[in-house]
Amino acid sequence: MASVKFEKGSKEWCMFRDYWSICQKFWIPEDNDEYWESIVRETDEFYKKYKDIILAKGIILEFVNCLEKKSKNRVE
Length: 76
Fold this sequence. Notes:
By secondary structure, this protein is an all-alpha fold. 74% of the residues lie in helices and 0% in strands.
């Protein structure tokens, strides 16, 4: 099995660092427009920054899907 170690400062390393930061910032859904507008803005910035990495779009979209599910389950 091939493996790789992302070098600190590489585009992939930075993508995962930024993804982790977004996860920590927004992990607990809030029921207000400011929260959701911030998610839209920051996830869009994330995607634009890393659109040349195939994984970027998938992980950020799945994170937003997860937040939406968590938010709906808390409300219902």
